[in-house]
Amino acid sequence: MAKNDRLNKAAVKIGTALGKADRTAHKVAKAGVAAREELEEIAKQIDALKRQLVKTTKRLKRALA
Predict the structure, then answer these.
(1) 50 Rama sector, left if φ>0, alpha if ψ -120 to 50, beta otherwise
(2) The whole model's pTM is what?
C-alpha cells in the first residue's frame, strides 16, 4: 500500500508541474501576441508620420521656391 501512495504523490507532483508549465506557456504566448500587435500599431504610426513628413517637405519646398 505504501508503494502505491508514493506513486500517487509522484503523479500529483508531475501533474502539478505540467499544469504550471502549461499555464506559463499560455502566458508567454499571450504576451507574444500582444507584443506583435503593438509592433504592428507602431509600424502603422511610423508610416503615417513618414507620409506626413513627405507632404510637409513638399509644401515647404514650394513655399520657399
Answers:
(1) alpha
(2) 0.61
pLDDT per residue as tens digits for the range 14-62: 999 999 999 999 999 999 999 999 999 999 999 999 999 999 999 998 8
Long-range contacts of 51-57, Cβ-Cβ distance < 8 Å, separation of 24 or more = none
Of 65, 41, 38, whose CA–CA distance to 49 is shortest?
A: 41
Q: Give Cα separations from 19 to 24, 54, 62 (angstroms).
A: 9, 53, 65
